[in-house]
Amino acid sequence: MTDRMTPEQRHRCMSHIKGSGTKPELLVRRWLWGHGYRYRLNVKSVPGKLDIVLRPYRTAIFVNGCFWHGHNVRMRERGNALMRECVESSPCCKIPQTNRVFWVEKILRNQERDERNYQTLQDNGWQVIVVWECQLKSDKLKRTMREVELLLNEKMLSLYRHKPIPYGIEEGEGQLPMAAEGRKAQE
Q: Count of domains in the chain?
């Protein structure tokens, strides 16, 4: 099937697709703000192109479009090598038949870049949460955002968990005197 648009028309259409401030991203941002979570956008000091950064939680949230990031797209094996042309679409990511090799390559590059960014953040002690566009449909939005909130709360608890203070008592030294006990009580 050939493209119904001229190359100039297709270029104009594709150039108007935004990379930030998308509807799924706005849904997540509104929900977080409404539930008391404060965040930053476009933080240059953190590696990767992050959608939402919650510094107190050391958490980066990526809101990924299913098509652009290849949600649940699977490679099929042919012999011993993976063939980039042999890709299975998923219910939420339909790879176009027109110029298929280009789209498969683009989606795979996006996935590889995403994995590098996630790994870099995790290596630097950041929690990475990925929210997919299909998880933000009206019937799944509340459940998805509750899961995000649970992950944020678990991260906060892990950051501020009580750490016991070691007293440096070696085994066999006996017990330390209690503050309420006098010297005579110990003898």
A: 1
